[in-house]
Amino acid sequence: MQAPIQTRAPLRIQSLPSASTLRFSLPFVVLRRTNRRPVRVRCCATGCGNNPRPPAQQQRRSYPFDEIEPRWHRYWEENRTFRTPDEVDTSKPKCYILDMFPYPRQGLIRRSQQSEILNASGLRYLKEYLLLFCPKKDYANNAKFFLKSSMYILILLKSLGFSYDWDREISTTEPEYYKWTQWIFLQLLKKGLAYQAEVPVNWCPALATVLANEEVVNGVSERGGYPVIRKPMRQWMLKITAYADRLLEDLDELDWSESIKEMQQNWIGRSEGAELKFNVVSTQGCEQGVELPVYTTRPDTIFGATYLVLAPEHHLLPSLISEAQHESVEEYRDLAAKKSELERTDLQKEKSGVFSGSYAKNPATGEVIPIWIADYVLGSYGTGAIMAVPAHDSRDHEFALKYIIPIIRVVSPFDESCDLGGPYLGDGVMVNSSNSVSGLNINGLSCKDAASEVINWLERTGYGKKKVNYKLRDWLFARQRYWGEPFPVIYLDDTGEVVPLPENELPLTLPELDDFTPTGTGEPPLAKATSWVKTMDPISGRPAKREMSTMPQWAGSCW
Ligand code: ANZ
């Protein structure tokens, strides 16, 4: 039987209370029906699945929003329906429910949550309004807009009827709140869990700030659509990798669906392998005193490593580029800096690279092999360099074919009738893997046994060691924006030493600034608050400068 069709016109927000009325009355968004657009809705009035077509008048009846919603909102407000009790019953077991809070972003509820909220509540028509209000301009640094948008969010959330106890609302932007965010940072610093490092970051020259991976879409900033490049910068980091194993182990205890747990596992991405060193040599094989560490999950394939690849942002690169290769390497690095990590690791994309002009010695074979630079190797994973084994890795295979680099098979499949047209990625028996000079012979072993044998040999000879790596990265915890918690640290003028502020100096509040747009020099906007930046160590009295980056927007909502 044909499903009945109910028509309901989309609703559009007609008016919003002004910011001034917000304080005194229940904020409420009034929705009105506008032009009629049919929406298919399944109806099961009889409860038997045979949905009779309702009479024409009934078909048009829609939810009397203006009538019902304000009444209930008033009721909830007057009866304090969502008020949580002041007295806590401590006899009950403790329970931590982590809700994902909707929070303002560009004046709106964050997009993912928007759709969750809207779809869950069936108020899809609100989307129209949200799109209407979505600002075209970048408001990252606009305080007035921030306040206005927070009010809109409040209005929207209240109108959606969430059962929040609004009397217990807290704001991460209040100094009394972020004092504790700063206090937590000091504890992390004391424990060595907050540290500074030179890391490749997503740098947006137009916004003059570092962006998180999620804030970069197709190589441009999510806000404003400005080009984003990768460049190394000294930044504050939080050492979440120290908890990688615990995060993995404790997944078992979580009452989550298996698919979500699997996503979490992949996100942590534990991999086991080895870190080993290749010595940089001249074309004649003479050592140059530079060692290149690489990370591999397949130490068993060491005899098949016919070239090395360095990420374009690798710190050792400048010392490896030959005079003749200088121009083409620089050109390649500029191109790579414009690509996101996602683009670089896309398996479908054609591999590209450039020869560095330098060579290294494979410690197992004793062969001199070329060092290439290619953007399919990331500077932020492992050591930022790989030993490439084109016979047994698809990316290396594609690259070796393109640049005519030798391909040496070192694993023979158990099933010899296997098609060996391309790279062989499976398990098998080691072949072509022996050298009396290096004292390593793994021929005839399975891949697994060969891997342990190679790790033993690396540890014996000092060429390397067993290593566990994680996809999970430490958290890049600094932004070059005005909005954000100031870091409670100073840098001594004479030595540059980082000194944490004493806890009784907290909160360290943001200075008032009329102009919080980017400086244009690459320095964060706080550089404009010269009298705030220039300070002295409260303990020793020595002149110092404050940190000018601020914490990222998630800092306050993470604890
Ligand atoms: C040699 C080799 C031979 C590899 C082989 C694989 C297969 P996961 O599982 O992701 O940890 N690799 C290492 N560092 C990299 C980086 N910074 N960027 C891109 N690729 C990198 O994978 C580890 C493997 O990915 C490593 O093992 C290395 O390639 C590559 F038959 O080394 B392998």
TrEMBL record:
InterPro entries: Leu-tRNA-ligase (IPR002302), Leu_tRNA-synth_edit (IPR025709), Rossmann-like_a/b/a_fold (IPR014729), Val/Leu/Ile-tRNA-synth_edit (IPR009008). Belongs to the class-I aminoacyl-tRNA synthetase family. This is leucine--tRNA ligase. PANTHER family: LEUCINE--TRNA LIGASE, MITOCHONDRIAL, LEUCYL-TRNA SYNTHETASE. It comes from the Eukaryota. It comes from Cocos nucifera. GO terms for cellular component: cytosol. Keywords: Aminoacyl-tRNA synthetase, ATP-binding, Ligase, Nucleotide-binding, Protein biosynthesis. Its EC number is 6.1.1.4. It is an enzyme of class 6 (ligase).
